[in-house]
Amino acid sequence: MTDRHPVTVVGLGAMGREIARVLLEAGHPTTVWNRTRSRADDLVARGATRADTVGQAVAGSPLVLVCVLDYAATRELLEPVAAELAGRTVVQLTTGTPRQARELAAWAAEHGIAYVDSGMMATPPMVGRPGSAFLYSGDEAAFSRYRETLELLGTARWFGADAGLASLYDLALLSGMYTMFAGFLHGAAMVGTAGVSAAEFAADAGDWLRAMTGSLPHAARFVDTGDYTTDVQSVEFNKSALDVIVQASRDQGVAADLVAPIQELLARQLAEGHGKEAFDRIIESIRPRPA
Ligand SMILES: NC(=O)c1ccc[n+]([C@@H]2O[C@H](COP(=O)([O-])OP(=O)(O)OC[C@H]3O[C@@H](n4cnc5c(N)ncnc54)[C@H](OP(=O)(O)O)[C@@H]3O)[C@@H](O)[C@H]2O)c1
């Protein structure tokens, strides 16, 4: 397989357009389709082939990348063209749940379509640039066949034959990202009550959060061993810190919606008698209990 085989991109939103552009610039004959036709104009001007229908689009290439809003839209587009897709590879870049990925993989298998699911750890300007990572799982032979092409979009990381794994990992990373940004916004609201701008706070928050990420392997050791024995950063100690943060927020007129759930998880661990154990034990309150 050369790196210049034809490729089709279905969905030219913010991400799909960048993906098609990167593939086109790398020399792949690129067929594009989008519900709103005009969104393909720029790519067509640069040499992409416009397909008038999804059926025409998928018939153009052995590799079909789908990047639309959600899985419902994906199914709406792909189900009517299952026969044309047989024998081809679909890489689903659209964000969805692991269950949706597994269901789509099962549908693809029934129709003789090779299916690879993906989680895109990138924003549109990052596509094809350093720092972009795309996570994949599903049909390993199809992934290996097109890996070189997929590497154009960002570092291609393989997670295994269970089509749901890329999405699971993607959503786990996004959970970390969302809670980090939410925490920053809570802090910005707090210092904002003293007239500090978010920009000023961002510099300090960035330094602090970067320093804190160094402790992730330490936290992971507690979780992986199930041994939360510690003589620092106990549940008790952190519960008292969260009590102060929640109270200070409210005193300043800032709602505690973002920090109060952490206080609540610590309170639960304390009530269950784990006050002397590590903060990281709050994971035991949220993860499934062994059957
Ligand atoms: N943007 C990001 O930073 C980012 C990062 C990682 C993952 N993602 C995921 O990537 C996917 C695409 O994101 P995006 O940022 O490109 O979104 P977007 O700019 O909002 O584009 C959405 C695309 O989906 C199409 N679409 C929506 N409903 C459709 C339907 N029923 N039938 C056919 N086409 C439909 C839209 O077509 P029209 O042009 O006709 O509206 C458009 O091409 C999403 O699942 C998103 O969660 C995005």
TrEMBL record:
User: Residue ranges of the NADPH-dependent reductive aminase-like C-terminal domain?
Assistant: 162-287
* Superkingdom of source: Bacteria
Coiled-coil annotated spans: none
**Keyword Oxidoreductase set for record:** yes
What are the protein's UniProt keywords? Oxidoreductase
Q: What Pfam families does the database record attribute to this sequence?
A: NAD_binding_2 (PF03446), RedAm-like_C (PF21761)
Q: Which family does it belong to?
A: Belongs to the HIBADH-related family.
Q: Which PANTHER family does the UniProt record give?
A: CYTOKINE-LIKE NUCLEAR FACTOR N-PAC, OXIDOREDUCTASE GLYR1-RELATED
Protein name per its UniProtKB record: NAD(P)-dependent oxidoreductase
